[in-house]
Amino acid sequence: MKPFKVAAVQMNALKDDLEHNLRVHAKFIRKAAKEECRLVMFPELSVTAHYGDQQVLQFAEPAGRGKIFDFVAEQAAQHKIVVGYGFCERAHGTHYNSFGLISAQGELIGVQRKIHASKDEYFSFRMGRSLETFDIGFCRIGILICYDSCFFEAWRVLALLGAEVILEPHASRSGWAKRISRAKQIERLKRQRPEQSVQVAFAKSNAVFAVYGNQSGYNGHSTHAGGAYIVAPNGKRLAKSVVSPRDQIIMAALDPGALRTARNQPHCTLRTRRPELYGELTRMI
User: Fold this and answer.
1) C-beta neighbour count of 276 within 10 angstroms
2) From the centroid of its chain, how far is CA 128?
3) CB-based contacts of 275: which residues, under 8 Å, 6+ apart?
4) Per CATH, which fold does 4-282 belong to?
5) Which of 19, 26, 27, 48 could be a cystine partner for 59, CB 3.0 to 4.6 Å?
6) What pLDDT shows up at residue 18?
């Protein structure tokens, strides 16, 4: 891993308004690049929107081609920055809740499909069948889409596969199929404590950086909770979004020295584990 600056976006991806969502992506890609970030992460389904209705599939496209890919790839190449974005993927005669990575040259690096569907997502998406890591030149990253990040096993697998940074694109709802008032959204944001979340505990246990960005606000169908943060491998918060449901971006410099320090601790569980005892984890219940 090399030192680099990363950005995470909190945004409201609107139902039925692809053009708006693409404009938001362009704005924050430009802003992240201007601040010399080398990677910018958008939330889950950040382009095609997230909500519990079959219409969520309306802007689906194959990975690596289509209107959405062409637009984001052009922005990534123009501003020379790696972009992670969420989209509805059409593949194998079905649909996936997917997260794409595009290089600073505008080429598809890879795609992670959500592997744990939550609530009504079962009715729209198939679940992915693998956990991947991606070498983006200056670090190796893994991606845990929303509910995927609630499973410690997924974090551990990615860390063992060499992930140094885990991206956590989210679309966590605070109001399913309803509008939550701005006052209530702000009150809920005030109560958010990233350092107390299981995801931060998992990042620390696996000695990885974690980058979290959530959808926020009412999108025409549902209300999302919002929030964004970046944490170091020791669990220390490096950046956090302000208390507001509006679209925003946060940034932080990631130091590989912090990664080495965390992994060299005498009680780093990534190194002191006993895998020969964990076979029960693979037994179906």
Assistant:
1) 6
2) 15
3) none
4) Nitrilase/N-carbamoyl-D-aminoacid amidohydrolase (3.60.110)
5) 48
6) 98
